[in-house]
Structures
1.
Amino acid sequence: MDNLPSPALELTPPEISAWRQGSDGPGRDTPDYVQSFDSGRPGPSVVVSALVHGNELCGAIALDRLLRSGLRPEAGRLSLAFVNVAAFERFSPAAPHAARFLDEDFNRLWAPAILDGPRQSQELARARRLRPLFDAADLLLDIHSMSTTTEPLILAGPSDKGLDLAVALGRPATIVRDAGHASGPRLRDYGDFVDPRSPRNALLVECGQHFAAASAEVACDVTLRFLATVGSISARTAAARGNLQTRAPQAPRVIEVTDCVTAASDRFAFVQPFRGLDVMPRAGSLIAVDDGRRIVTPYDDCALVMPVERPRAGATAVRLGRRCT
Ligand SMILES: [Zn+2]
């Protein structure tokens, strides 16, 4: 990841040390860098997470901004979590992609067999520490960004309930229905979040390019929309803190992921620099070569979801999707 071209850094890593001490104060077992507030009124337990990937600054900026503004839930409990802070603390403008994780991808650990298993890593230690927070969450918004300059999108997971919640937000307009990665389950796919019989629900938002100023604005906007939609704050509070009035809801564009292309070698290379959400009109179009293996699109009007410029062997290179609406 370090050998990607250096992008323009429009965002500055926020100073988050003020949020290290859990907000419940001494004596409560709140993990570091989790700020949790109980409204004292009935309502959902909501978690908004940032820095699951340490180089994805927009979510940290959004949470820092909301905390500094004194945002509190008006119903239920709200927890704002800075997740992989150890990786974030390694962030360097000289190698801005390198802080994604320390030992392994935090967002591929979310199955009991992994969390309860014998493996050890810095990310697993943090995941085990934060697991009770996510176990207790009725609703989760997990904020991310992308390596490519792709428009914002929501990864709604495989079930109708994820799609319904994504549509209810009103923005971002592009919603991807997907089942995740071969290399391990994401936080948004943990436990009940993907069980269609459970009311518990999660969304992952990709706010734009990692270091683009616009990504931080999207992260703030989506967070306020999410909190108002699930009833943690009122629509009036959300409107007062953001510019939701000027960002009208958009008609959703839903893409269903049908295929996940996993790199078989470190020599995986796309045949051209795709931006993400590119649509290939003809089935059989060559999109990449992986150590001699030709990767072609399986059907007409195939969308390329989140291409990774230089994936490692075993990692997702791109997902292929079909437009549903
Ligand atoms: Zn991410």
Note: Residues 52-53, 56, 144 surround zinc ion (CB under 6 Å).
2.
Amino acid sequence: MYTFQEIWGNQRLLQHLRMATKKQKTSHAYLFIGGAGAGKRLIAKTFAKYLLCTSRQEEPCGVCESCRVFDSGNHPDVIHVTSQKKTLGVDEIRAQILETVDIKPYRYDKKIYIVHQAHTMTIQAQNAFLKTLEEPPGYAVFLLLAETGDAFLPTILSRTVTLKINPLSEEDISNYLVEKGVASHEEAIFFAAYGQGRIGHALELIEDETFRQMREDILTRMSRLSMIPLSEALLLAKEWEIYKNDYRFLDIISLWYRDLLAAKTLREERFIIQKDKKELIFSAANESAEGLAKKAAAVAKAKERLMQNGNFRLTLEVMLMKLKENETR
Ligand SMILES: [Zn+2]
């Protein structure tokens, strides 16, 4: 658990962290930026473990006392800064960082603060934190985990080393899922596609029974969409209100059109991501590629509208109308 070897992708970033540690040239503060499920926590924790490892090897050794305590989840010199609220406010920063940072590490030569959801830090909290960041005690290391860098004051950014965690390729993810034995080869390919470059996200979806049911429901509906009249299709806008807080159903529809396009233009099974649904896909891919591309665009547009708090029913009705256009071709 928690070795660099186990982390997939982002090898240059990991190499950078390793070299800096070996040369004892690490910074006092790092900002890891990546989407949810991109691996921020895993990378930061592995780095923290490595910084504290007393064996000084290529990897956190896993056997020294520090590594063992780390793996138990109770390392005295690793502090997780979190909030119960939607934001990380000045009170949390005060109680969890400012009031403890001057106390020397218990046992080891570093004291590491892992700040979760750091992009939710309020401006007030950032200002309070800034003073510590300007003159941190020599032993302190701050690892800020954030989904975006936009939320930070320039003064915070200029005092941290920003490291972007890149999404992995779908192939990397599906290989990982197969190797870990959590999905069959067939399933791994489409869960990797739903995961959108994030292993954590793909893993979550695999275990999520609700998602599997949603996928079956949506794909059954989509495969019949061209056979039902528009008036009936529009009723789906109401029916899908059960997914009002879960826009993943739109990702499922997107991937459906992606596969229809592949089936239509490339005509070979190997280009289809959802091989478990290949019969449905080939029989539904009976309109022009141009028409399918337009429909895919309509789905993307609907997702965008919903993300900007567009009206759910209305947005879906508009989308469904577009999905029912030009079906005679
Ligand atoms: Zn160790």
Note: DSSP finds 15 helices and five strands in the chain.
